[in-house]
Amino acid sequence: MGTTDWMTSPSPRPHAPGARAIRAALSVCLGVLSLASSAESPWGALLAAANLTPQTAQLDPNRWTGGGEHRLAEFQRLWDDWQLVDPTAQSWAQSTLAAPGSFVRLAAFSAPKIGVDLPPDPRPAPPRRALGPSKARAALVAAIADLHAAFGPALDASRMADLRARATRVPASVAQAAAIVLRAVPDALAKRRKALEAFGGEAEGPAAFQAALKLAQQTDVDDAVLRLMDKIDLASLLGGGLDLAAAVDRATSVGGRWPQREFALGWDTPLGQIVLNGSQANTYAPGAYLLAIDTGGNDRYEAGVACTSPATPVSIAVDGGGNDVYEAKDGFAAAAGVLGYAFLLDCGGDDAYEAAGGLGTGIFGVGMLIDQAGKDTYRGRQLAEGAGVFGLGALSDTSGDDTYRCLTQSQAYAGPKGLGLLVDCQGNDDYVADDTNIVNPSPQTAEHNVSLAQGCGFGRRAHPGDGHSLAGGIGLLVDVAGNDRYHCGVFGQGVAYWYAMGLLVDLAGNDTYEGVWYVQGSAAHYAVAGLCDLAGDDTYRATMTQSQGAGHDYSLGVLHDVAGDDVYECPGGAVGFGIWNGIGIFRDSAGNDSYKTGPSSLGSVGDCRPESSCLGLLLDEGGNDTFPPDSMAKPHSVWVRPVPDGRPLARGAGAQRQ
User: Fold this and answer.
1) Please, where are the H alpha helices in 97-171?
2) pTM (whole model) above 0.90
3) Which of 165, 194, 290, 545 lies 20 to 30 angstroms, CA to CA, from 612?
4) CB within 8 A of 658, min separation 6: which ones?
5) 344 and 370 in contact (C-beta within 8 Å)?
């Protein structure tokens, strides 16, 4: 495939029932986003009351800018101006909703965010013409034969005859779809080789694979990890992924719905197995799979399907429907692209996904999962459900009441030079980062897990003498509609740490956010975080501190609730709170709200260095609100807290407008 083919690839035809309803919901939400993001800045009067201007109400311009060479430009842009956090989150949410069912559009949106400059919104082209049975099967045979010729050994006359005979069992639409995907593989692998050419043969073995996992799983570095980061050509690597994403989109647009009859073809290639199956119930045993297309039935997929390995750098799976199980409890599975490319499309059914890692994870590669319909369950332990480290990881679920479970580094998580994306378009969804079984205790409080989930960017803060500080990536969670629940321990729900960015955007529904410390639009140590909820009567609970629009140590934390009667609960250090020269911003644009907070909240600051700025702002723009009786915050008033002794650049202020 040429390098520009992906730019004009069509979105796949929606196979799932309810696609029209999904499009209608998206249209309404896009309108809400447009209205919410078009208003002029409301902060001028409050800043003036605190004797500040938009220019002076920023992080200290002389702050240390570290994080190493991998610090992202998008992070820097928002770190320089906190008023850009909210509109950027809303704009990015709108961009992801333009085509949640298209791999290439999700990839094209994601790549520029980590510094790979590619067009963000390719225009769709007309679907490719469906081939007749004989031409489609001939195309499949030719594509498989070319793979053998390219990666050896070539097929002899006897094996060619066997392949042609087996191909007669395959329906035309399936044969053509498989041929389209397989034709894109050699070019994608050529770009991968270019990306890794500095390593020679090492890149094809387990050493580079283990180095990639070491950075992602342990946030640790050694000589192999440093060499991998320094030498990899990320633009070439992602370019191969974009080509494959376009091929899968085109392949799944051919022929309309998948044929519902029984058939089977299995074939071993130098790059892994090709398995094409019909509507019978199938079990895919652990193995190395290059391509699996299954048109229906209640199927079971085990390790190796849509999952890369040192021997299988490309792995793609398409399931046409049925209540399917994807399971690999002890390893990566289901759209896990480590040093390669993994794509999984499931077109319908109530599916169960469970893996130690994966479910839309890219580690020095691209891993993407799209589920088009059904009430689905996702269970991952670490680096799962939309996670990216030096690459792109995405999970898009377009319909159904879904359940997401994880332990850590999941549900839109991004490590260094990565983008982790989770988009859920419809349904009442449940997002949980386990805080009951305490196996990953937090330094803040050993009674709770470190979640790093639900829109989290995370970097590596170097120990003294280490010298290898690594800026984090961008985690983005977008939920379009439904009454949703978000639950986590420490670090979650629009959170970031160390030159990273984490964003959570929920467009509609009566939602509940529950967490402990550094949650709900909170950032620590040179980071940017934001939570934006556009509609519904929402409840925000943080059981400890530094949450709900809180910035700590040269960080920006932003929470904006656009509409609804909302409840905010936190014992202290919340609802517009800055500490140690951080900036915490809180905004509620409408509704009758209840604030149940302790001290150092409601537009307040904590300890900070005398020579640097520190800011906590609260802006409530309407409604009959309830504040704690002993608080400086009062309905229909403006309050400016006294400047702390010896800290002339520290400001805490708030306003509640009628």
Assistant:
1) 103-110, 133-151, 157-167
2) yes
3) 545
4) 622, 635, 636
5) yes
